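Lab notebook page, bench 4
Experiment: in silico fold of construct C2
Operator: M.H.
Input chain length: 327 residues
Purpose: comparison with the prior construct
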Amino acid sequence: MNDIKVSVVMPVYNMQAYIGEAIESILGQTLKETEIICMDDCGTDDTAAIIKEYCEKYPNVRYFSMEVNSGAGMARATAMTHATGEYLAFMDADDRICRKDALEILYQKASEGNCDVCGGFVNDFSDKEIKDYPRFRELFDKADTSSIEAVCAKDLDYSQIQDDFYFQGFIYKREYLEKNNITFPEIRVYEDPVFLVRALYFANCIRVVNIEYYGHRFDYKQHNFNVSHGVCFLKGTIMNLEFAREHGLTVLYDKTLERADQIFLLPMLSFMSKHDKEYMNLLMQLDELVMKDGRNLAVMEYIDFLSARKDLFLQFYKYKYGRDFVY
């Protein structure tokens, strides 16, 4: 396939209820030089059959499948190797692009400035509401952006952004990512912040435009946080904290550390009860890392407290799980 301007990379796992809407939001774009690369992560429902129906009708819809279930990050990384477009966009199979000319605008603005990365606004949506993600919105005055000519653009450095969420809100020059070996790490959770931080930091130019670009569906999602996810979360957190320290990204550092404490506290007891050595070793590695900067993890203070109050811990554990804690 020749002259593809934007390749849309889409990992897929059991998304038969939403995959059609996601594909249609790309096929309906005014930018026609696109391809959609669907990477099936060994799903078990009718998603693959739906995608293959689109493949029969539209030559720019392409279906691939992973050999084994590997998580969304590895599915994206594998799909990237099949892309032929000048730029890459990323989309989850239950999300949508907000306006029909969004990819055309992003591609045009990125090309005009020879920018490695170009992005727009992101929102969270459900059947009942839309919630705006604040990133970049304060940079622009409210204006009519109904035409491409009216859209405004601003160029930023990552030091001005230091955000690590919603990597889907940008398109990325494929040659730039490949040259710098920027892809998704082999972890199932927190792989996208690791990717986004590096993709934005090393970009020659980050151009942002004042349009609603990406809609992230949030109403039905349920995240079951288990030990395996905790290990991946810690690995990704350590990667980004080390990167932030190395490059003086204090806002990113603080944001990452705050999120770590918020997420570690609640599931900690269940992780400890499973005697997961890898998780605890990584947690100690993270604590050692932040102590170098005179900081501390609140969760470590919590563990110290539980250690000092063994009686309270055992009482709470039995109340919470209905059984005695086994050492």
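Observations: The chain has a mean pLDDT of 90. The first strand starts at residue 6 and ends at 12.
Next step: discuss at group meeting.
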